Write a sequence for this structure.
């Protein structure tokens, strides 16, 4: 009996495939993302620049503040919430991160 | 601190419902910043420092105790009161030294000359909203060692004595420590 089986196995192919140790049954893909900005957290209120700043979060009752709270980029490429930065430049017109004179490069989301 | 966190939590749950009454007044930006900062400060406190809150609901009233282990003031215990104003973090905290001492940068009345506590400064050393309470604590602690500065004195007599006679300066510092800052 055993001899017969062996001979029939060999007949399947010239190079018998070794038995697989693992079989992939299921897989999950994981992706990461981050905002394409140099600093994604506002160094003044320590909230992500894409979220509403701490002040707007504290003051907004209806959630409308979230749309109005925009990001501002300086010529130095540092970004902050516009609300946070406009309060600070009243006292000292410099970027709090690099101490360069503050001038706005662009604003928006 | 725990109560403040609870207050914050309560506020967020209430905000979806009807308008909040004065009873649960909104938490200021200062208080929100402090909840995070105080925790961070306590984790990174220098060994020579100790902080205390007389009222755990008022994180803006901080008592700091510095017990230097080296330098002229070693062996003394110095108390500071840090008051974090409503304008924080656009404005630096107000700090007073509660212990009488003989120091070139701290007056006998308790006023303190520390660059990062200056609101308006043309150099990069003054206050900036990127600074935190822990920086203030480290600064005050360093006034007894690294930041001790005889070139920018608040107590002119202390500096003059130091420049004239270092041993007499050391003696006077010791006398003050024995009289006012005993551990």
């Amino acid at each position: 009996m055993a001899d017969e089986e062996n001979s029939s196995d060999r007949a399947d192919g010239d190079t018998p495939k070794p038995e697989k140790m693992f079989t992939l049954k299921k897989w999950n893909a994981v992706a990461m993302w981050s905002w394409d900005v140099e600093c994604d957290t506002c160094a003044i209120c320590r909230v992500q620049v894409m979220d509403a700043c701490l002040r707007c979060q504290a003051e907004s009752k209806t959630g409308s503040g979230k749309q109005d709270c925009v990001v501002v980029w300086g010529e130095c490429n540092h970004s902050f919430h516009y609300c946070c930065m406009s309060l600070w430049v009243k006292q000292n017109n410099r970027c709090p991160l690099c101490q360069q004179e503050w001038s706005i490069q662009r604003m928006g989301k | 601190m725990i109560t403040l966190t609870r207050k914050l939590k309560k506020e967020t749950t209430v905000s979806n419902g009807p308008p909040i009454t004065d009873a649960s007044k909104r938490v200021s930006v200062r208080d929100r910043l402090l909840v995070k900062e105080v925790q961070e400060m306590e984790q990174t406190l220098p060994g020579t420092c100790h902080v205390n809150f007389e009222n755990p609901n008022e994180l803006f009233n901080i008592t700091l105790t510095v017990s230097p282990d080296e330098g002229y003031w070693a062996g003394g215990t110095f108390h500071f009161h840090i008051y974090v104003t409503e304008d924080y973090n656009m404005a630096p905290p107000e700090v007073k030294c509660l212990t009488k001492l003989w120091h070139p940068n701290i007056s006998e009345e308790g006023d303190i000359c520390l660059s990062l506590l200056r609101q308006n400064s043309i150099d990069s050393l003054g206050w900036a909203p990127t600074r935190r309470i822990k920086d203030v604590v480290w600064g005050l602690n360093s006034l007894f060692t690294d930041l001790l500065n005889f070139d920018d004195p608040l107590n002119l007599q202390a500096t003059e004595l130091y420049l004239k006679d270092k041993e007499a300066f050391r003696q006077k510092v010791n006398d003050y420590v024995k009289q006012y800052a005993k551990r």
Remarks:
- The longest strand of chain A covers residues 104-108.
- Residues 1-11 of chain A have pLDDT under 50 and may be disordered.
- Chain A touches chain B at residues 43-46, 54-55, 58-59, 61, 84, 87-88, 91-92, 94, 96-97, 99 (CB under 8 Å).
